[in-house]
């Protein structure tokens, strides 16, 4: 087999064409700028001025965070919008449903239903949402604030 630039080998030495490959790297590059933590994320994330500021900060932070050699290999930089109320509500619903399923599986034949009040949901969002990391810490906050005290 000739060495063609677009033809590489996978981990099992099978030939692979990588001509149409897209590689994505995620980073919270611009999210740690001062002034972004002035309001709760779910109250201000859809404001156009903040969205534009976050987008500008993400693009401006890339050269400070990554080497020029790495940046020269990129075709583009995509800045994602901050999570809004709808997205956060869906995420917390999914995470709470997973907790419910886990407890139900542990109890086997006993019925279990969990109702979380709006104030508790807001508390979990306050504890588990960070502008820098998005909703990633939410699962740990639910575990720490809801599951462990109940165990």
Secondary-structure blueprint:
Blueprint: E1 7-9, E2 15-17, H1 41-44, H2 48-65, H3 68-71, H4 85-107, H5 118-128, H6 138-150
Antiparallel strand pairs: 1-2
Helix pairs in contact: 4-6, 5-6
Would you write up a description of this structure?
This protein has 151 residues and is mainly α. The protein has a domain of 58 residues. It contains 6 helices and 2 strands, in the order ββαααααα. Strands 1-2 form a two-stranded antiparallel ribbon. β1 and β2 form a beta hairpin. α4 runs parallel beside α6 and α5 crosses α6. 12% of the residues are buried.
Total beta strands: 2
**Beta-strand percentage range:** under 5%
- Could you tell me the radius of gyration in angstroms? 21 Å
In the predicted model, the low-confidence regions spanning at least 5 consecutive residues are: 34-42
How much helix, percentage-wise, in residues?
Answer: 40-55%
Ends apart, CA distance between termini: 60 Å
Secondary structure category: mainly alpha
Which key features would you list for this structure?
151 residues, 6 helices, 2 strands, flat
Can I get a quick summary?
It contains six helices and two strands; from the N terminus they run ββαααααα. By secondary structure, it is mainly alpha-helical. Strands 1-2 form a two-stranded antiparallel ribbon.
